[in-house]
């Protein structure tokens, strides 16, 4: 049985099993979408992202946010009967 869920990542986001254990990352880097989200959660602004992660642009950060919003927008909660 194949338990792999396939999704199409937007341009700028790559998912490769050997890179960060398959977490969605900014293309050409090892910086995961979650790294950017965690930075924003700690109070940094979008303009601060490039100063915290070399090689990342504001455009990259926006792509990461769009990707996260798309993934979370598809989230489903399943209730399990007792």
Automatic annotation (TrEMBL):
Q: Which Pfam families match?
A: DUF433
Lineage in the entry?
Bacteria, Candidatus Shapironibacteriota
Cited PANTHER family = SSL5025 PROTEIN, SSR2962 PROTEIN
* Source superkingdom: Bacteria
User: What is the source species?
Assistant: Candidatus Shapirobacteria bacterium CG07_land_8_20_14_0_80_39_12
State what protein this is by name: Antitoxin
| Any coiled-coil regions, as ranges | none
Entries under InterPro entries matching the protein: DUF433 (IPR007367), Homeodomain-like_sf (IPR009057), WH-like_DNA-bd_sf (IPR036388)
